[in-house]
Automatic annotation (TrEMBL):
The keyword Transcription does not apply. The lineage of its organism: Eukaryota, Fungi, Dikarya, Ascomycota, Pezizomycotina. Residues 179-296 form the 3-hydroxyisobutyrate dehydrogenase-like NAD-binding domain. Keywords: NAD, Oxidoreductase. It holds the Pfam family NAD_binding_2. Belongs to the HIBADH-related family. NP60 subfamily. This is 6-phosphogluconate dehydrogenase family protein. InterPro entries: 6-PGluconate_DH-like_C_sf, 6PGD_dom2, 6PGDH_NADP-bd, HIBADH-like_NADP-bd, HIBADH-related, HIBADH-related_NP60_sf, NAD(P)-bd_dom_sf. The keyword Oxidoreductase applies.
Amino acid sequence: MASPSQRIGWFGLGSMGLGMALNLQKHLRIKGSPPLRYSNRSLSKGQPLKDAGAIPEDDFESVVQKSDIIFTMISNDDVLNELLTKALTAGGPLAGKIFVDTSTVHPDTCASASQQLGEKGAVFIASPVFGASPVAAAGKLIFSVAGSSEAVETIKPLIVDVMGRSIIYMGEDVRKSSLLKISGNILVISFLEVISEAQVFAEVTGLGTEQLEQFIGSMFGPVLDSYSKRITTGAYAPPLDTPPGFAAALASKDAKHALSIAEKHGTRIPTLEVALSRLTAAREYAGESIDSAAVYGTARREAGLPFWSENSRQGN
């Protein structure tokens, strides 16, 4: 169990990380623990954290030096590797520290991080999360956690009923939590692809998207209904000043990880292959300010419809 005197650090304040870090800082303040120390490539994004009592640091190395447990929420494997290199070469002692990465990265990246930090006496916990940014802000994420059971018990009070509603413990092998998260995203991206195809079908045949969405909600429940609404409300291409819930770039990265792992094990994921192709086309056409549901925009174009719907933004 985390000691009230343990120092907690955070790096990564994107659409997910800021909400998570705010919930963690609120928890630390209530418990009378030392305030969260944080950093980010754009430190100004941490102003809400500073307002909540957290302490900004100029760089990741400073966060590591002044923390016992360090959380990261970053965009991809390259960023995580870059941060670990900084921590490993900064010269400060790492023994006894716990590094918790909540991002979605390749299982091999997790294994490498665990090995490198282990050689310095530190512990790496792979802890990717399920849920979009509103879920992160609400503190209702699901954490897929793997690594030292003792370290997991230490960080659990910082997660459950703070940043997340539950933990799925995947054992000591840090690759397993990454595999679960990637498997989950195979489902999410594939659901968006299939619903997009059905909604375009409803549109071009004259069935109507509203009627189809009513059926999806009644038949398959609130989760798939919410995916359909990301399409029909235009959230797949939000206003340029509104960050997407699950950015197309991140979904593409996760899809590539899944497809490469599948190929390595002699299998294919055809639905995900189509979705990745459509995501790539959507990013080329509409830029990076689009959601993973933008497979819908590409499917519309393939059917002779505009990429933009009447509810989405209308261009860049």
